[in-house]
UniProtKB/TrEMBL annotation:
Residues 21-117 form the VanZ-like domain. It comes from the Bacteria. Keywords: Membrane, Transmembrane, Transmembrane helix. The keyword Transmembrane helix applies. InterPro entries: VanZ-like. PANTHER family: DOMAIN PROTEIN, PUTATIVE (AFU_ORTHOLOGUE AFUA_3G10980)-RELATED. Pfam families: VanZ (PF04892). This is VanZ family protein. It comes from Dawidia cretensis.
Length: 124
């Protein structure tokens, strides 16, 4: 029953892992003169936060744990963003970036507010 609510967050995390750990030379050049990768980071980790918070919120309602699902979701999503940046150090053509970690964290923050807004409007 719990997997019914958890699978979207787990699948999204897998997609994020695959997208962020593709070797640098395999990433196609989109031809933009500015870097949109920070926007992509906001998007990826904002969605991760919303999906994780939704899953843990449902888990809390069904089982009574974890005690603070939104806080756990924030910590998990930020940790995932930091962990992925460290993993990128070992991927050819990729590198560790503090600015990407900041973008990931801002995305989690935006996801937090989106989740709260949707929950307040009874959309989740």
């Amino acid at each position: 029953m719990i997997m019914r609510y958890s699978w979207p967050a787990l699948v999204w995390l897998l997609i994020v892992l695959v997208l962020t750990l593709i070797p640098g030379p395999a990433i196609p050049d989109v031809g933009f003169s500015f870097r949109i990768d920070k926007i992509v980071h906001f998007f990826l980790f904002g969605i991760q936060m919303v999906l994780t918070a939704y899953a843990l919120e449902k888990h809390t309602l069904l089982r009574g744990a974890p005690a603070r699902p939104i806080l756990v979701s924030v910590i998990f999503s930020i940790a995932a963003g930091v962990g992925i940046e460290f993993l990128q150090r070992f991927v050819p053509g990729r590198s560790f970036s503090v600015f990407d970690m900041v973008a990931n964290t801002i995305g989690v923050g935006i996801g937090y507010y989106v989740f709260r807004y949707l929950k307040k409007r009874n959309r989740l």
